Amino acid sequence: MKRNHWLPILLLTVILLACAFACGKTGSSSSSQTPIVPDDDTSPDDDTSPDDDTSPDDDSSLDDDTSTGDDDFSPDDDDDSAAGTIWADSASGLMWQNGAAVGSGAYLFAAAVGYCDALNWGGYADWRLPTLGELRSLLRGCAATDAGGACDADNVCLKASCDNEACNGCTANLGGPGPGGAYWPPEVTGAVGWYWTSSEVSGLGSYAWYIDFYLGFIGYSYYVGDNFTARCVRGGDDDDNDNDDDDQTPDDDDDDNDNDDSVQTVWTDPTSSWMWQNGPSVGSTQVDWSGAQNYCASLKWAGYTGWRLPDIDQLRSLIRGCAATDTGGSCDVTDGCLSSSACWNAACSTGCADSGGPGPGGAYWPSQISGNALYYYWSASADQDGNNTAWDVLFIDAVIDHPAAYESNAVRCVRSSGG
């Protein structure tokens, strides 16, 4: 039988072809495989391990930004203790807004007041702009303007004349004990700069006091044109500069004595029989002339309604101890003579020596009257010269003046004692 020599050759060829196909397929698969290695890039990571990048993290681990606090997955908008700290001054008992962000904004005076009133910081919402005396209590390292220093400007002396030479502070710029040389305590942080107080300059409309912590300087500035910064305060005996015993304005809640007779009293003048709004918080609010009339018209005080803004004769009837401007004095301004060009004489503009009256603190009003004597008080009487001014009285020196109606003055309302 004839042998088939081609069969072994055919089988060997099939085997070789099959092997070549299998090996080629395996090599192709191996060359397309992506290596598995930990990421070491600098872009936002897309792995599931703790991130090793420098950008805001997008994984499920704690954030790696430079803030403290929450572990969100967005760029640092954390509301943490580093941004909203507070500092309690053991010397004054006041609690201060603190942190690097303090002082970063610039405000007109009214905006600074509003900023503090609306502030929610460190878990507290009852902040306010500090008075001059309160902000001055923060000064450290400048003997001329530290609390008790030779500068006369303070809560008890807010007239422009209180700004004496000592109020210029220290000659060394940034020579204080605070961070960066600020003239405030070492524990206090924030931008060094010019800080508003809530204290307006008595007798000088549209000006308020400020403190420059670069030099420990105390001064006053035009509050509708200058932009300074703000550091808010809370606590103390008078949280909102209205002399009540709580945290807000008179009669705003039920947790204090705002609406009781110890704060809201009345005094009936036995000479004139007029009933006057009385109490330590009187004069703490300053409004323009129109606002003063509205305030009295809507007032409910010590259980009484029917209040109104006093005319200049009524307001002048409160003056005691100054012959130049009390009722019948040589100042010619009365309800029968309201022209500034014809009636306002030297006696009206001079008044008497500061703090020489019989009232508390030397005010030129009766001893039974309380309230803030450092501000001008509006009357309902307009200047008849038609120049948009109205008459007022400053009781710390018994001066009678006629400022623009848009300026802010204090208010003491009056009513008939008969109802």
What is the secondary structure topology, with strand pairs?
Blueprint lengths: L5 H26 L53 E4 L5 E5 L10 H10 L13 H5 L57 E7 L6 E6 L4 E6 L10 E3 L29 E4 L5 E5 L10 H9 L14 H5 L23 H4 L2 H5 L25 E7 L7 E5 L4 E3 L12 E3 L3
Antiparallel strand pairs: 1-2, 2-6, 3-4, 4-5, 7-8, 8-12, 9-10, 10-11
Give a structural overview.
Strands 1-2-6 form a 3-stranded antiparallel β-sheet, with no helix packed on it. Strands 3-4-5 form a 3-stranded antiparallel β-sheet. Strand 4 and strand 5 form a beta hairpin. It starts with 5 loop residues before the first helix and ends with a strand. It has helices spanning 6-31, 109-118, 132-136, 289-297, 312-316, 340-343, 346-350; strands spanning 85-88, 94-98, 194-200, 207-212, 217-222, 233-235, 265-268, 274-278, 376-382, 390-394, 399-401, 414-416. The chain is α+β, with helices and mostly antiparallel strands. The chain contains 7 helices and 12 strands. It is 15% helix and 14% strand. It is elongated and about 60 Å long.
Please state roughly what percent of the residues sit in beta strands, choosing from under 5%, 5-15%, 15-25%, 25-35%, 35-45% or over 45%: 5-15%
Order of helices and strands: HEEHHEEEEEEHHHHEEEE
Q: Taking strands numbered 1, 2, ... along the chain, how are they ordered across the largest sheet?
A: 1-2-6
What level of helicity do the residues show? 10-25%
Radius of gyration: 37 Å
Mean pLDDT: 79
User: Which shape, going by the Cα principal axes?
Assistant: elongated
Multimerization status: single chain
- Report the biggest beta sheet as strand number plus sense, adding barrel if it closes: 3 strands, antiparallel
**Which class of secondary structure composition applies to the elements?**
alpha+beta
Question: What's the helix count?
Answer: 7
> How far is it from the N-terminal to the C-terminal residue, by CA?
149 Å
Low-confidence stretches: 1-9, 21-82, 237-262
Number of strands: 12
